[in-house]
Amino acid sequence: MHTPVLQESLEELVERCTQAVETPGFAEAEAWKREVPGRALAGCFPVYSPVELFHAAGMLPVGLAGGGNRMEIAHADSRFQSFVCSIVKSTLEQGMTGVLSSFDALIFHSICDPARNLASVYARNFPDQKVEYIHFPQNLGAPEATGYLAREYERVVVSMSELTGRAVSFDDVRASISIYNQVRSVIRDLYAIRSDTPHLLKTRELYPLVRYGHLVPPERHLEVLLRARAMILAREGRPKDRIRALLAGSFCEQPPLDLIAAIEDAGCYLVDDDFLQGRRWFTRDVDAEADDPYYALADAYANRSVPCAVKHDIRTSKADALVERARAHRADAVIVLCAKFCEPALFEYPLYRKALQAAALPHIALEFEEKMWVFDRIKTEIETFVESLLFS
Amino acid sequence: MADLQYQGHLHTLQKELMAEYYASLTASAEGSGVPAAYLLIGGNPVELLRAFDILPVFPEVNALQLAVRKQSLPHIQAAEFMGYSSDNCAYVKADIGMYFAGRKTPFATIPEPTLLLCNYVGCNVYLDWFGHLSEYTGRPAFQLDIPFIRTRSGTPSRDDIVYVLRQLERLVELCEEITGKRLDWDRLREAVRLSSETGALWSKIKHLTKSAPAPYDAYFDSVTMMAPLYCLRGTPQGLRFFETAYAELAEKAAAGVGPLETERFRYVIEGPPPWPHLRTFRDMFSRWNAVAVASTYSTVGGLWEFGFVHDPDHPLESIARHLLEWNLTNRNFLQRYAQIERYLEEWNASALVIHSVKSCRLFSAGQGDMREYFTNRGIPTLLVESDLEDPRYFSEAQMRNRIDAFFESVGHRTAVQGAGS
């Protein structure tokens, strides 16, 4: 069914992923569903979703990432106000225009107030689709948090089993953890390659490769990533006179690809970022052999996941973690790029600013919207920022 | 009848008791030695603090008091200067601005927190707010994680309840550590008993507005009673206030006395008030002889009118249920639709006003869908926007025009329906 990837060049692979990401709709996921009767699709709203649970239930977990800049919001803006971020509205718009009609379940998580209310609004408007809301503990480190999350995961799996009619065993969950471990491991490699040799892998290339995983089964994504990694490692080139920048803040709503390209073209090597954080949520593999795989997933969430504005862990300071990350990646500067009206991201900024200033790390704060078309202003701001660093 | 003044004894008593409460905050700030815990309104577990003689401090109440007294803007701007966005909750900004201005307000000096008790009850901003306070004050925050109501039954699961109970037990240990004394279960039961009686009276007060005319405005007058409900619940003074309030309002209901000369429109209102422009906003309804007979905002701290009572025999479980289930903020958005539907039917209201505030997306995100839902059911519904704390987001002329047009149209509709019947 799928086109083989083994013969494609890196540029062709990136282009294939870019096309998939930029084309409205979910054609590959829908094709996957049609292949075998009884298959089901679960649409997972950002930021992190425990995709293994849906995969184990025989579903394809599809990442929802908003409507990008190719969708006009004509209906949803009467339901959500002007001060609500775009991804909430574009997701509802996708529902209202039939783009999500092939989905059997929609999954939302305890990340912010608008996303939570969206779960209710979606459920009311689309009663034929199952809507689940996952509560992630916000007291990570507390002795009862991990066990509670494990039981929450079991609850969700039971709910999905009711939908698919398929019982889920521990082995099913272990197998799903294993395949997603492999995917995450290659993504970690690619991120490390970009950090070490950013002149060999642009973020404009890495991003669609990672986001392709939102749209296809993990087995297929793994195939693409492995092929891409092999070809990236064979690349040669010399670094240009650019700054090394860490980009923070764009973990939920996603900027247009052209904006990512514009930031790079403005003179930055992006050596780390927050894009699509949910796909690289864990700092190392989840235990795929654990007696209780639900607990293993929950434990990884509680104890071995990346800092994120929507995850509250009083054991660590997210601002300090940002500074440490910038240093680990030898970043010259930090770009804080928040989605407009994204309250969790905007709340991080004052503490980020304080910590970055204390660490003498230059930074610039900017806002974007997924639906933006014109990038000149942001590009000019970053160019000016870069010049101030290169020529100071 | 001559004694049944609108600004009756309950208003005087509220002022007296709140002044005493704020004096206790100032005393703590000035070294009385009484430890202070910051906590949040949503389903607040204040009873537990009472048992340890820990003073409850509600940053939301402080922020709204600043707004009512037209003191919020400089603090909001100071916070924005620190990097907070114009799109961040202005309660937080006013509070943080005030904190760095020395914690001095026209009503009290706010003490430094001994404990930051972040009762995460629905509102995600709570987590950021208390996280930032923890950073600024150097005090650890206790995150009391309350799972959101997310199942079809609309009730918490046994797992949810046990999970919250385990956390409350750890909170007890922390309070024991802070105060150096063991939990006195009799004192906790007594605080819960006081809350139980207070809640029962508050519930009866809420049901009084089923009378026509309603004896008080369930939005603009409820807020007078909400401060004692949070700041004084679980104390004899708090109970005394609600005994007084109930007696006074029940007498008004029996006598057919309302807050306005005439009650022409009975409406339900959703959303927090625009605190910096409260009087102006109220007048926009009063001039139409429109009385709010029920409000969702008055249930953020607890939803007693639908049957909840604290149980002194099971104090911790009772507190857990209050946090999980019996408050507006931890309920899902569709449960709010159902709550409003009950108000419309059982309180015999004919219109819905949605006051959408930018700061509080817990309340506001999706209220356009709510408008659609009720409009489709034939309920005249008005959605207006401003803010609960930031005075810059209030357009008086536009707001007045919209409210005028709304009641004009509701009046016309009522007249046509009356003529047709």
Question: Which keywords apply here?
Answer:
heterodimer, A: 392 residues, alpha/beta, 14 helices, 47% helix, B: 421 residues, four-stranded parallel β-sheet, 52% helix, 10% strand
Low-confidence stretches of chain B: none
E-strand count of chain B = 8
- Our count of domains of chain B comes out at 1
Q: Name the chain pair with the biggest interface and residue counts per chain.
A: A-B, 55 and 52 residues
The structure class of chain A reads alpha/beta
The main sheet of chain B orders its strands as 2-1-3-4
Strand content of chain A: 5-15%
Helix content class of chain B: 40-55%
Number of strands of chain A: 8
Sheet with most strands of chain A: 4 strands, parallel
Note poorly predicted spans of chain A. Answer: none
Number of helices of chain A: 14
Strand and helix order of chain A: HHEHEHEHEHHHHEHEHHEHEH
Distance between the termini of chain B: 36 Å
| Derived structural class of chain B | alpha/beta
How are helices and strands ordered from N to C of chain B?
HEHEHHHEHEHHHHEHEHHEHHEH
Radius of gyration of chain B: 21 Å
Rounded to the nearest angstrom, the radius of gyration of chain A is: 20 Å
**Shape by Cα distribution of chain B:** globular
What profile does the largest beta sheet of chain B have?
4 strands, parallel
N-to-C CA distance of chain A: 55 Å
Provide structural commentary:
The complex is a heterodimer of chains A (392) and B (421). Chain A is of the alpha/beta class and 392 residues long. In chain A, 47% of the residues lie in helices and 11% in strands. Chain A has a four-stranded parallel β-sheet, sandwiched between helices. In chain A, strands 6-5-7-8 form a four-stranded parallel β-sheet, sandwiched between helices. In chain A, strand 5 (243-248), helix 10 and strand 6 form a beta-alpha-beta unit. In chain A, helix 7 packs parallel to helix 9 (218-233). The N and C termini of chain A lie far apart (55 Å). The mean pLDDT of chain A is 96. With 421 residues, chain B is of the alpha/beta class. Chain B has helices spanning 9-29, 46-50, 59-68, 72-82, 90-100, 124-137, 158-179, 185-208, 222-231, 236-255, 278-286, 315-324, 333-346, 361-364, 367-376, 396-420; strands at 36-38, 55-57, 115-120, 141-145, 265-270, 290-295, 351-357, 381-386. In chain B, the strands form two sheets. A four-stranded parallel β-sheet of chain B has the order 2-1-3-4, with helices on both faces. Chain B has a four-stranded parallel β-sheet with strand order 6-5-7-8, sandwiched between helices. The two termini of chain B are 36 Å apart. The relative contact order of chain B is 0.13. The model of chain B has no long low-confidence stretch (mean pLDDT 96). Chains A and B meet through helix 5, helix 6 and helix 13 of A and helix 6, strand 4, helix 7, helix 13 and helix 14 of B.
